[in-house]
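Quick one:
INPUT:
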């Protein structure tokens, strides 16, 4: 699946079958289902979950909490648009190894 293919499924009522929890959280976030996305992210107990968590708290407007989660994810604090960050996270999840994180 590509980012554009995942983005196309956002018109659907339910996420596509077979998404990882991380991709499901990002799908929920894009649909505006913040609570569902947050609930999923809380159960991902690694840097991937922390990065998604950071994105969600940034989306919420809680930048202090987002900063905490970016540090836990070993990611720089994002300063681009939420849409650009969403694309970056999803791209990494779709194309990277198990962790799906950018450690540059």
């Amino acid at each position: 699946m590509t980012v554009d293919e995942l983005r196309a499924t956002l018109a659907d009522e339910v996420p596509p079958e077979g998404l990882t929890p991380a991709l499901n959280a990002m799908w929920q976030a894009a649909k505006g289902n913040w609570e569902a996305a947050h609930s999923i992210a809380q159960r991902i107990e690694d840097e991937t979950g922390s990065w998604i968590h950071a994105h969600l708290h940034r989306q919420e407007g809680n930048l202090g909490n987002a900063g905490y989660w970016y540090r836990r994810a070993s990611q720089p604090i994002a300063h681009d648009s939420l849409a650009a960050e969403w694309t970056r996270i999803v791209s990494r999840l779709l194309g990277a190894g198990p962790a799906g994180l950018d450690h540059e």
